[in-house]
Structure prediction request, 225 residues.
Amino acid sequence: MTAIDVTITELLPDHTADVFQLYERIMLSLPHGFLAERSVVEFQQILSVPETSASVGAWRDGQLVAYVLYSARSGRMEHDSPVLSQLWKSGEPWLVSRGAGVDPEFRDMGIMAHLVEARKALSKSKGFDHATFLIARQNLVSLYAALRSGSWLVGFEHDEYCLNYLCYSGRFCDEVPLSSEANISLDDIDSLRKHTSDGWVGISLDRKNDSVADSVTLKKAGRFL
Prediction:
């Protein structure tokens, strides 16, 4: 249980309808591009094979109020991020985010932090040590939460909606030594791209105010230089 009395469970194929109903409510409350557009069939595919899914949900009084969805990926991955190149070369499978959301009535209550930890534990129990996920560039609340939870900003990626921050969560965050430090404005995309392409990783977000741009603190990830 969390402080607001929700129960967290693994999401299985039988939960597809619950996930899709919540997804539709969330989509109505978010700016365009914060969540990918998905059909109920896509949610069925994500949850259809529990062995290759690490998805969790938070329930209150029998109703799903938040979810985090991940499914397995393997094979070749072309990317200018040295972190992700190393992951591909390792030959290990990894998880890719298929979406996350919280019912508008239950936001800012700490539910997502609990779900992230539950997803990590479930992933580890299924033999997955790595995960990647995208965050829309405008969604600084989610980026702040991701870096605060120990994930890394490792690059950028466009989808059909917008430019996204590309983040990594997993064993590398615990094993790879970090050194040096740089603080770069989030508005300076060129500099951020260069640093992440050179093996730097974003580890924390410095929240500013309306007149000063937020900035990210990066460190060198030694193994990837």
